[in-house]
Amino acid sequence: MAKKTVASLQTSSKRLTKAIKMVKSPKTGAYTFVESIMTPEKVNDWIAKS
């Protein structure tokens, strides 16, 4: 499961988006959240990557 945040971040002239992904640990089975800030074009590729 992954969640794309609606808010976009702006720094100088670049438009950035913060994406949050839930990742299940194979060792414990617990879920952790991984956050990354990137351009909106790269979000879908990052979420699809496991």
Instruction: Count helical runs.
Output: 1
Please state the overall shape, judged from the principal axes of the Cα atoms.
elongated
Number of strands: 3
What fraction of residues sit in β-strands?
A: over 45%
* Major beta-sheet overview: 3 strands, antiparallel
Uncertain ranges: none
Summing up helix and strand content along with how strands pair, one would put the structural category as mainly beta
Rg is 12 Å
Elements, N to C (H/E):
EEEH
Instruction: Average the pLDDT over all residues and give the rounded result.
Output: 82
The termini sit apart by 10 Å
Estimated helix fraction? 10-25%
Strand order of the largest sheet: 1-2-3
Topology (elements, then pairings):
Layout: E1 2-11, E2 14-24, E3 31-38, H1 43-48
Antiparallel strand pairs: 1-2, 2-3
Detailed description of the structure:
This protein is mainly β and 50 residues long. It is 12% helix and 58% strand. It has one helix at 43-48; strands at 2-11, 14-24, 31-38. Strands 1-2-3 form a three-stranded antiparallel β-sheet, with no helix packed on it. Strand 1 and strand 2 form a beta hairpin. The protein is elongated. The termini are close together. The model has no long low-confidence stretch (mean pLDDT 82).
